[in-house]
Records
---
Amino acid sequence: MNSNADVNNRPDYDHVIQDIADYVLNYTVTSEEALDTARNCLMDTLGCGLLALRFPECTKHLGPIVQGTVVPNGARVPGTSLTLDPVKAAWDIGCMIRWLDYNDTWLAAEWGHPSDNLGAILAVADHLSQVRLSRGEPPLIMREVLETMVMAHEIQGVIAIENAFNRVGLCHVLLVRVASSAVITKMMGGNREQIMAAVSQAWVDGSALRTYRHAPNAGSRKSWAAGDATSRAVRLADMSMRGEMGIPSALTAEQWGFYDVSFSKTNKDQALKPEAQRQFSFSQDYGSYVMENILFKISFPAEFHAQTAAEAAVILYPQVSACLKDIEKIVVRTHESAIRIISKTGTLANAADRDHCLQYMIAVPLAFGNLTADHYEDNFHNAHPIIDELRDKMEIVEDKRFTIEYLEADKRSIANAIQVFFKDGSSTEEVVVEYPVGHRLRRKEGIPLLEQKFKSNLASRFPSQQCQKISTLCKDQGTLEVTPVNLFMDLFVIS
């Protein structure tokens, strides 16, 4: 045997890829809690997308690449008059959903937003339903959309529990592409081989770098990156359905596979990880856990590690708003993940930079009593120098208990604590908020607020009668589940 030749024995698919395909093909979603949460997730996610349509920086990205393109049986983009091919529709819907950083969140070793997958799911479901109707066949129903959402959440979230892509410099939208590729290929009628082929291609694509999420490069790409990932997923699913081959050892191939190329070193010091950590680890099988435990952003359009900080700042507002100039320092106790992703000093260049700055998301509600999407815009920031003055007075301190309980499966807290000290030596009491309103442990409190958030977001785009019709349908689990997808999407069209 020539030592300069590779042994070309094609392997079986990596077990991680096989497990994803088997889950998508064989798992039946029976959890009523998961389906109910998926319904609330659908409402919330679409509402976030509709609200984003107020912002030209978002809408400039929407629409066909070639203006005037007509797509028979195309997918509709909610809140618009657009009908697009499912690849571009997935991009547009995904972009809308993520633009304001207001949709649901999953926090574990890896962070992310599993409802990002709805861009691919809705685009393909609408397109397939219309194709079926054109053939005299029954369309998909919304129950299938909800089940697919549960599975996409689960794939993205379970992989994220113990595997930190951020620690190797990669962006979590990789997991959107992987999850969407799997569930969309299944939705298109794909078999096990086709699903594995699509998922393997998603892994081989590698991932976007996290560069655009962090100082000093934080910018608007983080708002459309998920749309880009869902769009790519639909494309890969389509290619697999056309018979494109997969890449069986996409993860494990020596030298060329994802593990060796993208997962073997820490991004901070480029040190080689211990061998056992150069591949994914899993603490549980796929089921419906992630959807049941998803975190909703209800109170604030703020990066999730700052949700409890913003709430604490709102609580402190009545005590400090009249004496902001008298503040000497603001001490913030937080968890390690918040420090790593959103603690920053210096000039904030744009809205995306501000909504990923812990200090900014505390300063605004301390000064104004609330935090909304408009508070990130240039005009608002530039008009209120007090925001940066307060940022400069903040001391960010890691609380080890907060860090530990952030990762504990029975807690998954996202705790922050704020105390304000004044120049005369006095201080407020420390305000501690360990779980945000959108946490499972505050679900009873949160769902009525989520429904109100949805109604408000609907009202930003539709007349009151249409808002009421959509809201009534979305609150009725049984009726929603049997609603044809095309008729559901009809409700969101603007002619």
---
Amino acid sequence: MPLPAAIRDARREFFTTSAAGLGGLALTSMLAEEQLLSAESSTIDKSRLDVRPPHFAPRAKRCILIFLAGAPSHVDLYDPKPVLQQRHGQQPPKSLTDTVRFAFIKKDSAILMGSPRKFPKRGESAMPWCDLMPRLGSCVDDIALIRSMHTDAFNHHPAQLMMTTGVPRFGRPSLGSWLTYGLGSDSRNLPGYVVLPVGRGSSGGVSNWTSGFLPSSYEGVVFRSQGEPVLNLNNPPGVSRKMQELGLGAITTLNQQRYQLLRDPEIASRISSYELAFRMQAAAPQLIDLSSESQETLNAYGVTRPEPKKHNFRGGGPHVYQQFATNCLLARRLVEQGTRCVTIMHASWDHHSNLTDEISYNAGMLDQPAAALLNDLKQRGMLDETLVVCAGEFGRTPLAENRGGAKQNTGRDHHPFGFSLWLAGGGIKGGQVIGATDDIGWAPVADAVHVNDLHATIMHLFGFDHLKFTHRFRGLDVRLTDQGGHVVNKLLA
């Protein structure tokens, strides 16, 4: 047989036999668990999501990332700048603008734009907190606010990848994948890493929760808060559970030997996924069924709160307020049931125009459910071991956006040089502000924190030395913080 034909036939045989065997092997494992098959006949490796010990005792065991994709304005939400307000409408120093890139701002006509927001002091810590988020303001003693963040990318997609994977390019595992890879999952019936999207899709999409070069078992699984929790989870119409078992059982006999021969890691990952999907058919619908929650809890999160009126601006379509509130409650339910990492993704914070209306709308969406999440975790004794991070990919310029020479400047451009985010729980020392930017919020002037520093700190909270937490890929020991990073000790309780 000519070589090309041999290669073609071998390739066809590999995909046919291995793919056909996945469901059968998964069924073998499940039947063994139910004592319907002898343990000796099961050939499935130990689950890739089994819990494993970290390098040292962790402070955090679970992570909830609230990702505000599009980049919220730090000078309007977190970092009050009276001087910027005083200089509203003035031209910025050329030393600031000459050597930097902007997405849309025209340098020759750029002007400073102050913020109308008020920042009353809240909590025992007397932390200045934006008047648009009063409920989160009641939680500031549990919150560590970093005002000195900076990143390497000034466009959304690469900056989102920077925040979620540590580098501004495709192909790297996300933070949630690294945590699940390192610690496994405490749940057998739900994924170790779950993504809860709401509103418009982020520009980064699935690349923000990919497993990259790690086995696909560690990739984020997208859940929906209504309808079928995971697309294509249920059997097709007319296919009963018994029919499923019979079909998979027949395939098992044919393909166990092939699996033992190949031992392909991705086949093992797919087997694990089949097993999990089988269990999720019962567990996932129960998860999104909120009937077991008290009315007090539903009201606290704002699950049934009315949607404010809005007119032709970003925000993410109808029912965003209710969807975001539901996702925050689902995040608590997921980590309570053993899921290692949850990402709540809202992607409508790109305020190039109509800033006042849009950021007011979005802050209102965020405030009540996020505060309820912190309070709920705290009341259940879970906050100490659950790290909550609320972040976008960068900040917004202290300059008004003047795209196209518009006479009315109503928004802000992309700003990677300085921005803010906050953390709570999971070993974080709350009630403090870390770092500072200059008088107009342009760049850090004290305790600068790079995105890689944030990742190193998160790894530390979960019990990992970020310099030693690696995965061998193409002959290299790769880590989340390859580009640099150090632990921010001021964050630690």
---
Amino acid sequence: MSKTNFFVKHLKNINNFINNLLEKNLNKLNFKNLSFLFKNNKIILTFVALFVIFVSYLLLPTFFNQTDISNKLKNELQVKYDLNFKFSQNIKYNFFPRPHFITTDSKILDNKKEIAEISKLKIFISFDNLFSIKDIEIRDMILENANFNLNTKNYNFFIELLNRGFQGRNIIINNSNVFFKYIEDEVLFITKIFKMKYYFDSKELKNIFYSENEIFNIPFSVESFFSEDNKKNLSTINLDLMKLNIENELIFENNKKIGKSKLNLNKIKRLVDYKIEKNSFDFHIFDKIDQPDVTYKGKFNFKPFYANLEGNSDEINLNYLFSSNAIVAQLLKTEIFNNKNIDFKLNINADSIYKNSNFKNVELNLKIQDGLIDTDRTKFEWRDIADFELMESLIFVRNGELVLDGKLKIKIKEFNKLYKFLLTPKNYRNKINQIDLNFTYNFDQKIAELKDIKIDNKINDNVNKILSNVILKKDDLQNKIYFKNLLNQAIKSYAG
């Protein structure tokens, strides 16, 4: 018999003796005889001995063979969570605050490919049955500073983990990242994980997944769980910064997934129907089922990557697209679309612009192709006075700020109405048919640089000087007054 086995057997005998002793005498204790006990040196020595024995019991796993404990932990994790771990050779044991094993630089494998690298992994075990490796039972697991590498094949990794058994056990992931890749090592986007937790709700009798994340500098939280029959995944997503709440229901049918979502965006409600198949994602957004006023349809193909979004709306809110905190603006700032493998087209028609009734019949066109983002052929009307059209336009990032650069064509349909709106003096009201100019607009600073301004194909230097820098105000009323004064200065200069 080895020294380790002898020690374990001896501790077992002592442990059984202590348990019997405690069962016989604990019920007899009260405050009077408790003070007597502590005056008795033998009793104190007994408690000291019990403490030493308890600590010795907790230290038993330190005697286990490294290879044996590594194999045991890997098998337990494989059986309970269907996770294939690869540990570093150095596995440390600590019993404070609870018995657990610690390993660094561990990995999670999927079909022999690494899908996660974990800087620090803590595996907590039960207090019971520490005498033998065979009897060790995993309780909780904490992953810290992990990097997950997911793609179109295993993008459901975190959702599928929900189907594993979490009763009496938790999985926690802290300060980690998720790299979603398209082709080989080509990263499409990165999601930060501040805190993620899998646990079993004893009241609802279901596994729950909760996570606090960040994507494109936008924080969000997710709570998700499966229905009793495991055919539906129900989740709630909150983006407090954007005042967006999403309630989602995903149904699993053979090789496809059918989903329904309710979007609440700053008191604006939208419904979404979507379908996920092996290499595609189709969706339909609308405001109501019968005779919707707002409707958007889109499709994403993953092999090859191609996306298309078309929509019609009575009103479009450009702040949701291009304001400094908007998710589209944040996406563009990441320069994720500056990729020759991405092909994306956006076409949205709207009757008007939100909070600006002067603009109507908006045709928003955005195309991402060959690493370039252009808004060519984007058109809109200003009252019944003028038509605007963007040409040779590109969106790009300069010094961390989102910039639109291009040409603008303005066709004046009613020049008299223009002058009347601007309250221009009659002696300056010359006929104008068309204005052409080059411009650069900074979405973050809300500054427009105008140059090469041509009025009816003629350049006026004074007009160019006056309109060289247009700085938008925070208040709409201030902007109206500012624009009227600025344009009247230019008109007076043009009229001589």
---
Amino acid sequence: MNTKALRQKILDLAIHGKLVPQDPNDEPASVLLEHIRAKKERLIKEGKIKKPKKSKAACDKPHYRYEEPFEIPSSWTWCTLGDLCRFLSRGKSPKYLDEDRTYPVFAQKCNLKDGGISLEQARFLDPTTVNKWNEEYKLRNGDVLVNSTGTGTVGRTRLFTEDCLGQYPFVVPDSHVSVVRTFDEINSEFMYAYLSSTIIQEYLADNLAGSTNQKELYIGVLESLPFPLPSYKEQQRIVSKISEWHSRIENIEQDKTTLIDTVKIAKSKILDLAIHGKLVPQDPNDEPASELLKRINPKAEITCDNPHYQNLPSGWAITTIKEVCENINGLWKGKKEPFVNVGVIRNANFTKDFQLDYSKIEYIDVEQRAFNQRHLKNGDLVVEKSGGSDNNPVGRAILYDGKDAVFSFSNFTMVLRIVHKDLITSKFLYYTILAKYKQGVMRQMQTQTTGLHNLILEKYLAMPIFLPPLSEQKRITDKIEEIFASFNNIMESL
């Protein structure tokens, strides 16, 4: 289930008057609008609020000002957002003094991408300039804050509440944030729902000014925005219903998160069972892995004991990566002709679930001589040997599936290429390495210099591999893929 889309659907139904039924006993919205307009005129005359200035509209779709964008219930009425605001303005350019952390300045980054508001990254006002900020610029409970500058963040809308203030005496907005403050006759949460809805967010995005890298949402666009006004009682019913639906959605999301975590744990457990011979039954007719090792190397010392997991199944043996694979370092950009243009697998092509992402392949000119030794083949394992992070150690591996193209791999990676394909399959080796990575084994096989994590190749290549008979390897990988496919189907249905 796409809960993000569901949230938007709820908001869209709300502003169309389709989320809750209308009550014929409610006062018509037209009466409410006249009351607000009269109140606004009175407060302007009394000097308690300022008369709105003519703002730069920067609107290339003026029909939105004169035509009703969509149908609304007969008890509702159309007006503009400016009609309903006692304060509608951008913030001001502040003078900062971050050493004094008394008065936070609300910036675009305070409107969090994933929802909510945070002042953790706010800068702070120079206290000597406090008297330059009128009371109206101090953010209040119920203010709707709209990011008004910058590609990617412009239009992002959040609701300011008393909880956002925290221990600070007040918060002021900078010039990249617009403040929408309505009269008390308008429910601020309804206003927030309106400005957050899909249709309005798309309208704002279509009516930005400025260059590609510096988009601007002028106050005039907000001011002239058509607003579908219901009665105050219906606003309250709508907000209550939105809250009810959001609680349900949050429960769904929590259950979804729990299920995702459970699936991750289950997959790791499946892999652990697989590499220890506990996932599928053994077949006494299978040729033992020890015999395979002897045939390849008659002088090899065959080990069938596992110090960390005693009593491997009968027919299993222990080998190492270096005994079954050759390792090939990645290549750099070419310096000597002749060159060949190839797609290069980089760390960026490793997905979170250890698959190969073909959508971000970078093509570069490399030396023909170097490429001849590093032309990816079906069944190659591409291993991240440099990069990673504290939370994601190096050593991740992806299985190259032989996609029909000319591919190689970067110098931050290496390839494990199976030498004896009658000893071990590439899929079994891949799942073995994946299991060990999820167990945290690779954390003990890396160094860190200048922020870069590097795989200790000697340790990595000496990593023990628990080797089942060849036929059992296929049964194991088939079973893993069968179970993982079931898990993936569950996840796709969420």
